[in-house]
Amino acid sequence: MSAPVAALVGLLSMVAGLATGHLVGGFISPTASPFLAVGASAIDLTPLWLKDFAVRAFGSYDKVVLLSGMAAVVGLIAVVAGLISPRSRTPGLVLIVVLGVIASVAVLSRPTAGSLDVLAPLVALIVSAGTFAFLHRLGLLSQPQTAGEVVGMPRRTLLAGSVAVAAGAGIAAAGGQLLVGRSGLEASRKALGRIGPTVTAPPIPPGADFAADGSPTFITRNPDFYRVDVNLTLPQLRTEDWKLRIHGMVDREVTLNWSELTSRPLIERAVTMTCVSNEVGGPYLSTANFTGVLLADILKEAGMAPGADQVYTTSVDGWTCGTPTATLVDPVRQAMLVIGMNGEPLPIEHGFPVRMLVPGLYGFVSGTKWITDMEVTTFDAKRAYWLQRGWGQRAPIKTMSRIDSPGSFERVSPNTPITGVAWAQTRGIEKVEVRLDHGPWRPAELSTEVNVDTWRMFRLRGRWEPGAHIAEVRATDKTGYTQTADRAAPIPDGATGWHSVQFTVQ
């Protein structure tokens, strides 16, 4: 068999198996898909420095890059499977079996794996091996023995078989994607309509942003709100199926369903969220009006035992998070179980139907999406997902600031304002200063404050000299702390340093 034909045999066989496994996974559970399970395991096993790089380099496209890279690697292995089997199909089949075992282990190692999930990688293995054997035979029979002479059958038979396999794989993959959405999740979300709070957030006052001069709008639209998580496929959890169990070091175990949760007073608050992965000047910062139930009230009902210093929460997909108990019962902080975002039910990618929100803490220690379990415990007893990987334990959000306009290397007019945002959740921003070309610091104009848990815009007006300039910014919070110039990477507990941009006045 020629090398191109052998490579095609291997590639089509692998594609057919993975597509069929994805289809079967659609019937059972999205996490049973061999391709997605291997991807999720790759995320879990990826070294910390590489995860950090991926978020920095690709942002919200990091998962697309991961899946594309996986597809390339799987494709290369498939081609190798064909190339090592020019006459005998045995070497290629052995390699396919090895990959099938790896996929099965990946599926069964997922936190939410069920006994039926193994069917998806098993079917994928059978289809891949069967397709390889079939196409390998056609490939051997279609090879010319001498110039112009064909053994057994014309090449068009191999071509027809290959087209049939490719078409079948495409249909299976598309079917798997359609089945993932069969749960009626979006219908469940839309049926809720607008989320009406019992206690409405105060209206956003005039002057809360300088959007006309280049700052973000004060409220971030839901589609524009940043998203950082470890999910390759979004968990599928309807309100009808949602339950939250509160247990562990409590006086009484509490289980809430959707109707029991939403029958409680619903509080609406404007809160700015920040991701710990945010570099100095990074984009992972957004603000919304969140609606939810105060967690302090629920924990009070459960009755936390003395010595409990952590609330260990689990998402429906098995992701875990550890939050200091003191922050959850703090009446000033007002931690919530959130069900609404900007008047709508939570978007699916932001944790529908219920997520946790704790102002002033980075999301990796507070922001459990798709939450289904809450165990009151200690930090000594339980170590959450990111804590196991060397990230910080308590992770309060740091006082920081960012220049949004002018953008880096932008060419602007002499009277273009320098605008941006500053944040110090739970403390509030007292002052923002900007300097040009390492000169003296100048106090910037601040936008109207909404509350201490939200960002605050700043603006510095002036007439700048023509030529290249560097602008730097620093913020001071209401405790009197001024953010440090010392640069620190985001991991393990948040970046530090002054943000700067270079721009040219023309």
Biggest beta-sheet profile: 5 strands, mixed
Strand order of the largest sheet: 4-3-12-7-8
Number of helices: 11
Number of separate structural domains: 3
| Class from helix and strand fractions | alpha+beta
Subunit organisation of the chains: single chain
Overall residue-averaged pLDDT value: 91
- Overall, the morphology is globular
* Computed CA radius of gyration, to the nearest angstrom: 27 Å
Q: Fraction of residues in helices?
A: 25-40%
**How much of the residues is beta strand, in percent?**
15-25%
Number of beta strands: 21
Low-pLDDT segments, ≥5 res: 147-151
Distance between the termini: 65 Å
Can you tell me about this structure?
The protein has eleven helices and 21 strands. With 506 residues, it is of the alpha+beta class. The protein has three domains: 3-183, no CATH class; 218-389, Sulfite Oxidase, Chain A, domain 2; 400-505, Immunoglobulin-like. A hairpin with a 5-residue loop joins β3 and β4. The longest helix has 26 residues, at 3-28. The N and C termini lie far apart (65 Å).
